[in-house]
Amino acid sequence: MAEETVFGKIVSGEIPAKLLAETERVIAFPDINPQAPVHILVIPKTTEYRDVTELAAGDPELLAEMVSVAKQLAEEHANGEYRLIFNNGASAGQTVFHVHAHIIANLEERSLLG
Ligand code: 5GP
After folding, report:
1. Does residue 74 form part of some domain?
2. Which residues contact 15 (CB under 8 A, 6 or more apart)?
3. Complex-level ipTM
């Protein structure tokens, strides 16, 4: 098991998050520090995997479920087009070592934000 992270605490309910989607094995919630008009995190409930490389090797069906939830959210919150970003390792920008996908969308609205 990976060490408990802030996302493990969101899964357990210790830290609140507004759930935008939930399946048996996956949840999604807005990023606390959004980098785009739509910035949603999709995470598995299990704390077993630190990054997408471990997840792909250990449970590819769970990875596919995360991608499926991401597509559904991009259709609900944007026009269905989106970036899906996984940071892998601290020097690549990963700060939370509980695998998560960043859904980034509606980038054309950046200009409205200044
Ligand atoms: P990473 O840099 O590891 O790929 O992404 C971690 C993301 O988690 C960051 O974009 C950060 O803003 C977000 N984050 C960190 N703590 C919390 C939190 O307590 N709640 C939410 N909703 N997002 C968080």
Report:
1. yes
2. 6, 9
3. 0.99
Give the list of residues 6+ apart from residue 30 with CB closer than 8 angstroms, or none: 17, 18, 20, 39, 40, 41
- Token couple for 46: 């299990």
- Residue 1 within any structural domain of the chain: no
Paired residues of 83 in beta bridges: 104
Q: Name the active-site residue from 39, 98, 100, 102.
A: 100
Provide the domain limits for residue 79: 6-113
Measure the CA–CA gap between 54 and 60, rounded to whole angstroms: 9
Into how many domains does the chain fold?
1
Rounded to the nearest whole angstrom, what is the distance from the C-alpha of residue 112 to the centroid of ligand 1? 24
Reported as a single tens digit per residue, the pLDDT across 37-53 is 999 999 999 999 999 99
Task: Assess whether 100 carries a catalytic annotation.
Answer: yes
Question: Cβ–Cβ contacts within 10 Å for residue 24, how many?
Answer: 6
Neighbours of 18 (CB within 10 A): 7
Q: Where are the beta strands (DSSP E) in 1-114?
A: 21-22, 26-30, 38-44, 83-85, 101-105
